[in-house]
Automatic annotation (TrEMBL):
This is TonB-dependent siderophore receptor. One of its GO terms (molecular function) is siderophore uptake transmembrane transporter activity. PROSITE patterns: TONB_DEPENDENT_REC_2 (PS01156), TONB_DEPENDENT_REC_3 (PS52016). InterPro entries: Beta-barrel_TonB, Beta-barrel_TonB_sf, Plug_dom, Plug_dom_sf, TonB-dep_rcpt-like, TonB_rcpt_CS, TonB_sidphr_rcpt. PANTHER family: FERRICHROME IRON RECEPTOR-RELATED (PTHR32552), HYDROXAMATE SIDEROPHORE RECEPTOR FHUE (PTHR32552:SF74). Its main location: membrane. The keyword Membrane applies. Keywords: Cell outer membrane, Ion transport, Iron, Iron transport, Membrane, Receptor, Signal, TonB box, Transmembrane, Transmembrane beta strand, Transport. Residues 1-37 form the signal peptide. GO terms for cellular component: cell outer membrane.
Amino acid sequence: MPSPRPRVTAPLPLRSLPRSPLALCLLAALAPALAQAQQTVPDGSDATDLQGVEVTAQRLDGYAVRNSATATRLNLSPRETPQSISVITREQMDDFGLDDANAVLATATGVNVEKIETDRTYYSARGFDVTNFQMDGLGLPFTNGGQEGDLDTAVYERIEVLRGANGLLSSTGNPSATVNFVRKRPTREFQGTAGLSLGSWNRRRLDLDLSGPLNEAGSLRGRAVAAYQDGDSYLDRYALDKRVFAGALEADLGPGTLLTVGFSQQRNRPTAPMWGALPLYYSDGSATDYDVSTNPSVPWSYWNTTDTRAYAELSQALGGDWTLRAALNYRELEGGGDLFYVYGTPDRATGLGLFSYPSNFNSTEYESLADLYASGGFELGGRRHELMLGLNSARNQSNQLSWYSADIGTPLPPMEQWTGAYPRPSFDAYANGADFLTRRDSLYASARWNLSDRLKLITGANHTRIESSGQSYGTAHRYRADRTTPYLGAVYDLDANLSLYASYARIFNPQTEVDVNHRVLEPVQGRHTELGLKGEWFEQRLNASLALFRVEQDNTAEYAGYDTQTLSSYYRGIDATSTGFELEVTGRVAPGWQLAAGYTQLRIEDADGDDARTYVPRRTLRLSTTYDIAAIEGLSVGAQLRWQDEIHRDQGAQDTAGRPIVTRQPSYALLGLMARYRFNEKFSASLNLDNVTDRKYINSLYWAQGYYGAPRNAMLSLDYRF
C-alpha cells in the first residue's frame, strides 16, 4: 500500500487572490521599481535586438515551434536537437481545453500520467519516472517524487517535453523526460483575452490575460494572467476550488539590457480529496469493480496547497552575438489537510475487511535557485561555432509534520455502501515528520561544433555537488555526492529536409527513498543512448521524427512495503533496461489542418531479462488534430485520441488458494471531440467532449490501489479577444 504519510504543502500569509480587474493595477504598482527604465529606449528606436532572450522556444501559429533551448541551452530547431522533444503549444491547449498539467502531459508523446490520487500525480516516460518540472528552463526535482496538487496551465505559453537524459541542464541525469513550462511574457503591443467555461458536474471557469506596454516609449511592459475555477466532480463528495494569478514586468534598461521580474500564485482548495485510493482486489484474488464515482474519502477531508513563485531575470548583450543571462527563482509551497486513508483487502461476499487511517499534517517547502550563463559564437578552423558556459546553485528546505489519531484501524462498511459517514477524530495520539535541507551546486558547459556544412557535433558536461542533511520520518536524510555527467550529440543533414542524429548521456541521480533497514538507497546510475531521423517542411511548420532509444538504469527505487512501526514506506533498488522507438509528427499538414501525433513502443526488463515495471504501458498512441471547414467560414472541428495497451501489477499478495494476485487493466482508447465557431475576429465559442465512448478504466496501477477515470463529459467555452 502507498505510504500513509501525506507529502503535501500549506497556506501562505497572503490569503486573498487579486481580482482580475486589478491585474494591470498590480503591474502598475510594481512599475516604480523599474521607473528608471521608462526613458531608456528612445521613441522610434529599435527595441527588438534582444530576440535571443527567449528562454526556450519561438512559437509559430499552430502546433509547431521554430526553436528550443531545453536540451542544451543553445537556441536550436527541433531538427538540430539530437534528442526527442515535443511541444504542446498554447493553441493546442486552447483547442482541447487543456487547463492543467495532467491534461497536457496526457497528450504528449511517450508520457504516462500516473494519477494515483485526486491531488497527487506521478509521471513516467521511456519506462522510468519523470522527476523534474522546470519553469523557463530552471527547476529542482520533485521533493517527494511527484506533483502535489493541480498545476494550472493558464500562465504558460507552451509546455516542452524533452525525452531522454537531461543531466546537462537539470543538475542530475534522468533517462525519462524533463518537462519545461514556458511562462507567458509581456508583449510590445496591447492584447487581451477573456474566457468563460461551463461544464459537466457544475464546473465553472473564468480566464483573463492582459498584456502590453506600460509607458509611451514601450520600454516597460507588463502582463497579468488570472484564472478562477470551481465545481464538483464525477467522484462522490470531491470538489475543487482553485485560483491562479501571475504578473510580470519587462523593462529595457539600456541598449542590449533586458530585465524581467514576475510573480505567480496558485491556491487549490479541494474537498474530500483521495489519500490513497480504492482496493483493487478481493481476498479471493478477484478484481473489485466499483462504480466510477466511488471515492473512499470523507466530507471533512481537505488537502489545501498554495504554490507561490517569484523570479527575476537579467539579460545583457556583451557584443557580437554573446549574451550574459542571470536568473533568480524562489518558490514557497505550503499546504495542510485532514486526510482519510482506507486500507485492507475486502471479502468478496461481505465487502468487509477495510479499515480507517485518518491523519492531519502540515508541510512547508522553500526553494531558491540562482543561475548564470553566457552564450555566443566563436571562430575556429575557419568555421563559426557556438559555446555556452554556466553555473547554478540551488537550495531546498522541506518541513513536514503528520499527526495521527487513536482510531486507526476502525472497521469500515463495504465500499459499495460507503457514504463517507465517519466522524472527524482528534489528531493527538502521536506524530512524525521530516525536516531536511538539500543543496545543489553545478558547473555546466555545452558547445556546438560546426564540423562541416552537413555535420554538427554537440558536446557538454555538468559537474554537480549535492548534499543533504536532516531526517525524514525517523530516517536520516543525509548524503553527499559529487559527479560529472557528460553529454554527446551529433546531427548530420541528409538533405534540405532530413537529418540523422545520435546522442549519449550518463545518468546519475541521488535518491531519498530508504530500504527495509532504513538506509537511503544508493544513487541511480546508468546511461542513455538515442539514434534517430528528423525532418522539417513548409518553413518549419511541420516536423517529424523517428527515435530509437536504449536506457540502462541501475538501483531504481521500487516500492517494497510499509513499516507499521516507523509509519513509513520502504523500497528496494532494481536494475532495469528500457529499449524502444518513438514516431512523432507535429505541425501544419495542409492549410487549415493542424496535427500532433506520436506513437511509442518499448520493452522494460530487469537484470534477469524478465519484464519490469509492468504498470507502464508498452505501447501508447497520442493524436490531436483540428481542421478548418472551408465551406463554413469560422468553423473548426477536431479530435483527440489517447490509447494505451494492457498493463498489469503483481500485488505481492496471494489469494485464499495461495495463487499470486495480479491486477490487470486491459488496453483502452479515450476519444475526445471539439468544435469551435468564430463569429468574428474577436468572439468565438467552443464545445469540447471527452471520453465520448464513456470507457471505464483505472487511471493507474503505479500503486497497489487505484481509482477510475472520468466518464463522458463536456465543456462549453466563450472567448473574447481584444
